[in-house]
Each structure stands twice: as structure tokens, then as C-alpha cells.
Amino acid sequence: MSKMFKINANCIGCGMCYAQYPNFFAERNDGTAKTIEGKLIDENVNTQNIVSVCPNGVIEIISVTDDKKQLAMAAVHKLEAFKGCPIPTKKEIHFESSEYYVERPHRGPREYEAIFSSSGAADRGALDDFIETMYSKVDNILLKIMTQYRTKYLRKYFTKNKNDGSVYAEINEKISEILMEIKNIVGSKLPDDYAKVEVDYGEDFDLYVKFYQRGEILTDELVNYAKKEFDYKASSYDCYWDTDSRDVMVRSYPMKFKEKYYYDRMDNAYQELAKDILFVCHLADNDIEESAIYRIKCIVNIYNEKLKELLNKKIELAKKALNNMN
To answer: Which of 6, 110, 211, 315 could be joined to 60 by an S-S link, Cβ 3.0–4.6 Å?
Structure first.
């Protein structure tokens, strides 16, 4: 029986193994280590030194069959059984309103300024300032929240870029590892670029990516779900600020004072509006998640079809090569 190295699930990604032994180990996207698929341990390899290089003890040695054709067929069966990119569940893209923060002004622009002729005028001034500084910006606030949600949970389904966390780049890498395992066993009977995974995503996939990047999908529709729940009038927040008066000098000589009115405690209204914005987002979470899953399902299905076409070609090449093996 031949032997191979194996990295168990406790890898912490220290990098010691693939830094010192790159012929046996490599780095994954998340920084953890993986073994080079199909790489067997030669008799002259000091396995104890390699195993001990890991400070967390996650490097193991396993026995594998000496029948190379059987090993290659097992890898081919992995490709045949591969189901492609899974559609995420609601739990995986869950919209949790408490994750987001609504920025708000600390005070009204004319707060504490005794410039109003009456309590009613001060109240109207407070309302005008409240509308201008925050209430009129509710749409923009909702847009910012949905943009943060898109970036954190959805973007990886609408990009091919590995640096953006593309789920497709990750899957392509895993497929490439299996193909390399077959290539290492079969050798020159397969093309040099056999392990390269170049999925022809197609125009439909690229259109979805473009629409997503432009905000034509999963932007306005998500914002509108929350806006649909927002039915608070600006005037309903007037109970959160106060008005008061003080004497203001209107002439220095001879001195003359006049009662003027001002508003304060505007931060209470801002805070309440912020709570209401997050609350309507919470009310819309189911619609947001369902819309996201629908859009993701469309683009994932396109990718899976294209990936399947590529895998069928790779499988056919592997089987032909294996049939010609002694």
C-alpha cells in the first residue's frame, strides 16, 4: 500500500507546511493548508520531519491503494457525482437588521438658537430641520443598508473574481485539484492543461453580473421592500423634541429684551427614526431573502450548466486515457 499526507479539519492556517514542503502542500483561499492531490510519499521522504512541522498536529499519513488506475477512476467518479454550486439557504444569506447601523446627526442645525417668535414657530422650525437633516434621507439610508447586505452576503454569487470571494472561483479550484489528481496518475496521456478549469460562463452570466454591478438587480427591489413597510410621517416625531423660550437682547442701548423661542432634544427624534428604519428592514427580511435567493438561483443555474459541459469533456478525456492504460 502506498501512503499520502492528509490535512485534517483542525488546520489553523499557520503556513508552515506549504512554506517548507510545497511539493506536498499548498494554500487554500482561506489560508488553511491542503495536500497536493494524488501526490504519493516516496520511500526516501522523512515523513516524521514533515508531520512534526505542524504546530497543531493536523498532518496525518494515510494508506492508499497501489492501483493507480483505480485511484484515477475514483477521482473521475468524484467529477461525475459533483452537483455544482449549491443554491444558498435563507439561513446562509439571512438579512439581520441588527447587523446594520444607521448614522444620524447629533443635533439640529438651529438647535438652541432662540430665533423663533413663538413656540409654534420653533416647532415648525424643528420639523423643517428634522426633515432636511434626516427624514428626507430615509431612501439613501435604506440604500446604504442594502448595499452593505449585498456586499457581505450576495456579491460572491455575482463575480468571477477570486479576490472578491467568488463562489465559482472556489469551486473551480476544487475541481482543478481533482483534475490534477487524475493528471498526476495518468500523466502524458492527458493534455498538459488538463487540470486548468476555464468555464465558459456565457453572455447570460455576464449580463447578470453587469446588472448586479450597476445596481439594476438586488438594489432598488430590496430597498422597496423596506420602503413598503415605512409609513411614518415626519410630523409623528414632533413629540421627541422640545421647545422653550428665553429673553434675548434686541437692543444694547437702551437695553431691550424680547422673549424668543428655540427647540432642543432633536437627538431623541433622530434616534427614534433610526430605530424605525431598522424595524421596517426587519419586517421586510423575508421578502429581501426570497428575492435574493431567486436572483442567485438564476445565475448559479447558468454556471452549473456551463460547468457540467466542461466536466463532461474532462471526464470523457480521462476515461479514454484510462482505457489506454495497462
So the answer is: 6
